[in-house]
Structure formats: structure tokens, C-alpha cells
Amino acid sequence: MQSQIAVIGLGLFGSAVATTLAALDHHVLGIDIDEQMVNAHMHTLAEVVTVPEVNEAILQSLSIAEYDTVVIGITDIEASLMIAQMLRDLGVRHIVCKAKSAIHGKILSRIGVDRVIYPERDMGIRVAQTLVAKNIIETIVLTSTQHVVTARAPHSCIGQPVGTIQWKTPNGVTVLAIQRDSEVFAHPGSTVEVHAGDILVLLGRSDDLAALLAEPTSSEG
Known about the structure:
Layout: E1 4-8, H1 12-23, E2 27-32, H2 35-39, E3 47-50, H3 56-61, E4 69-72, H4 77-89, E5 95-98, H5 102-111, E6 115-117, H6 119-132, E7 136-141, E8 146-152, H7 162-168, E9 174-180, E10 183-186, E11 199-205, H8 206-213
Parallel strand pairs: 1-2, 1-4, 2-3, 4-5, 5-6
Antiparallel strand pairs: 7-8, 8-11, 9-10, 9-11
Helix pairs in contact: 4-5
């Protein structure tokens, strides 16, 4: 189902969000004060507009409240806070905003931003995890301590039931799914055994995941 999404600020973050959503066939409106940035997206986004500034009157003229989601990709902290407040006042249903720091994110949440993104922090976590545990394929950062990772099964888990993985770590790592060749087993029971070559989708604390996945994979000696 196609969503109507507006992205305010077409810098590196905003541009990546907007073009990816457009490639997924969503209707995307790109908004920026830099005409060059806007022109660069003329042929990739459904709508683009250059504005002299982002204020309540301009947002109203763009019928911003009719969009399913508005993403704020602006780097400036004061500007992002002001825009978030304006969007909330205008009745926007779902607001997503990137934050530069924990304090910035906390204020955005208090204003009523539905989802706060920490792109620099999240990328740093992903890079660090792949350096320590080379068997990690993908990481989704839920919070600074809770992650979902997709990883090749470590050697110590082969032939062990899923329940073993949960008690191998101090706080318990949950196995959300197992990919085995072309099959995917969602929410496997605690007695399901892990096979060599399995891809695991795991939920847990970052330190528990790091300890578990620092071990060799099933394909390593």
C-alpha cells in the first residue's frame, strides 16, 4: 500500500530516506531551502519544493497534515525542534526526526515526535559489531542496548536446541527466526535444533549478542 510521506531536509540523511521510500513506490514530497538539493531530486521523488524557510504557514500551504508520515532530516537542533513542534500543532499523524544527541532526542520525544532516529550512533554500533563479530550480517538498533541482529549460527550453537541459546547469555538472547536454505522458521520452539549453515535472527542486549557472536561460525574451523 502506497504511503504519502514528506521529508523535510534533503541532506545526506533526508535524501537517503526520501529516495529509498520512492524506490519502494511510496509517494514522497521532498522539502528543502536549498534549490540545488531540490533540483537534484526532481526526477526521483513524486514532488519536490524549495521553500525560503520552514514555518507554519508554508507547512499549511503544503497540506502537510494530510501526509501519513513526516520525516525531519534537518541537522540543526533548534530548527528540528521548532519544526517538530509545528508539525505536532498542525496535527501531523506520525513524525520521525533524527537526533544528534541523547538530550536532543529526549526533547523531541517530549514534544511528541513518534520516532527518534540516531543515525550516527546506530552506524557506529553496526560498524563496531561487524569488527568484533564478523558473522553478523545485519543489525537493527532498537535502543542503545537492545538490538536485533541477523547472523550466521556460531559453532557452539550447532546441534543445540534454541532454548540453549537463551540461557547461554546472562540476560537471555531470544531467537526470533531461523533461516535454513530457502526455509524460514519464525518463532522456533525451544526444542528446535540449530543446524550448521543456519542464519539466526536474534533479539537481545548488545553485550550478550557480542559475546555469543564473537565465537566462530558453523562454517569456520
